[in-house]
Amino acid sequence: MKGALSWPYLRLYLLTLLYFSANSILNVIIPLKGEALGASNTTIGVIMGAYLLTTMVFRPWAGGFIQRYGPIRVLRILLTVHAFALLLYTFTGLEGYFLARVLQGICTAFFSMALQLGIIDTLPDEDRSQGISMYSLCSYLPGIFGPLLAIGMWQTGEISVFVISMISIAILTGAVGFTARIEQKPGEEASGNEGAKPGAAMMRAMGQLMSNSHLLRCGVLMLSASVVFGAVTAFVPLYVSEIKGGSAAVYLTIQATVVVAARFLLKSRLPSDGQWRASLVGGMMLLLISASLAVGLSASAGAALFYAGAFMLGIAQALLYPTLTTYLSFVLPKAERGVLIGLFIATADLGVSLGGIVMGPIADLTSYSFMYGLCAVIGAAAAAFAVRGSKMINSK
């Protein structure tokens, strides 16, 4: 096999799958344990949101450092820290969980940027969207089996099963990661970065967030969509008790399965030419709106609508991120592409964090149904922005 499916890249995808396996389990265990300990939705949302909020802060810095020094140099250090974070979950309470989420967030900022920039910089243009889609696919693949494993661990009540799982994932991830290779093209690593400091590059990138219409448009879309993704991840395990016949494990498994299937089956059909596709992006956002409404109404309508929401949200989640990331990889200035893409991905991290941190208090003050209805309103505003944004691009 060649291109995005050659052995060196398959090894990177395997590393991605192992790295994100722990989080797919923790996304279910943390809310359940928090509720069992009497924590409010606000507290649970803060702990859940701390992970990607930290990732958001460090993501632009990670992009600059990795583009300057190369992805492999930082990979082994971050995998060691990540292993320590996983160990914290095995012997601490909610306070230790918060610290572990912060450490995970820092590691994920560098990990995801290292692999994505490595894929972008080393694959031919025509294979770029396929490589990014495969990376995204493997980052979500654990979402199929992770929730089921988490529910099983929780129902058994045996803490030793959870401890062994975290330790095993840490060891396997380190074994694969320490032997991974990302070959830079000759002269690629230093291109556009000679004499540049990551901090200075990030400050310039922050200015471009408002001045670069492509980055601003994609960032707002990703931020809005990610609020919905975050609210679903953080609170579906708790909301499901209000849905007759509903199961959090089934919901999350359906959503993850759809994400994986869509990214695998459509990986070669996603645009990889730097052209803006208004109808495609608008369609994804409409699916997002429909999914939010379906989840919000399922408390009264039943489990069938609940699972339909998982299906629709999975499609939107599968296509939106790789589409926008690939588009930006073509239209952003190459010299600062690493930092700028890091800034874009940080908007996704921020959105998922806000989905837990902000939507948690809203759910406490109102209801889960109201909160998911508000998510639909956010999605509608983002869809309108996408349509308006496409007209702005075409007029230039």
TrEMBL record:
Organism taxonomic ancestry? Bacteria, Bacillati, Bacillota, Bacilli, Bacillales
Membrane topology classification: Multi-pass membrane protein
Q: Which PANTHER family match?
A: PERMEASE, QUINOLENE RESISTANCE PROTEIN NORA
Cross-referenced Pfam families: MFS_1
Q: Where are the transmembrane segments?
A: 12-30, 42-62, 74-92, 98-120, 132-153, 159-180, 214-236, 248-266, 278-299, 305-332, 339-363, 369-387
Give all residue intervals belonging to the Major facilitator superfamily (MFS) profile domain. 8-391
Q: Which UniProt keywords apply?
A: Membrane, Transmembrane, Transmembrane helix, Transport
Spell out the protein name for this chain: MFS transporter
Subcellular localization is given as: Cell membrane
Tell me which InterPro entries the record gives. MFS, MFS_dom, MFS_Exporter, MFS_trans_sf
Write down the PROSITE patterns for this protein, in alphabetical order.
MFS
